[in-house]
Amino acid sequence: MRCLSFGRIGRIWRVADGRQVAGRRRGGGGGMATELSLMRLASAMDNADYLLVDGVVFATEYLRAPDEATSVDDVVIEAKHGDAEIMFTRGEIDGAEDLGEGLYRLKSGEELRFLSSATLH
User: Fold this and answer.
1) Domains of the chain: residue spans and CATH
2) What pTM value is reported for the model?
3) CB-count burial class (<10 Å; 0-12, 13-18, 19+) for 49
4) What are phi and psi of 80, to 5 degrees?
5) For the chain, what is the largest distance between any 2 Cα atoms, rounded to a whole number of angstroms?
6) Residue 95 banded pLDDT, cuts 50, 70, 90
7) Contact 114, 101 (CB under 8 A)
8) What is the secondary structure of 50-84 as a DSSP string?
């Protein structure tokens, strides 16, 4: 078996005869839809003053933890680095893989780490 891709329910595996079966990620998580994942993301976002995106530190300007009231097009993260501004929608954050310690890998492959002021000292 080999891993093909991440889906909303975990990894999709293809077995030798071509069938696909759903697998579970490390920690048993099923993507951002689980209550535990949302709580961990909300906690990481709540304490974040900065966002590390693929090696570049951005100052957070707006953070909203995704919940059942947010739609896929709602902006949940806005951050700034000099003149550069980035934003992420709920749709981009959904399905992110929790790598621990405030680090998340998005479906797009980008890695986000939520940092507090104390972390940067």
Assistant:
1) 1-30 (no CATH), 32-120 (2.30.29.190)
2) 0.65
3) middle
4) -135, 140
5) 53
6) confident
7) no
8) EEEETTEEEEEEEE----TT--TTSEEEEEEETTE
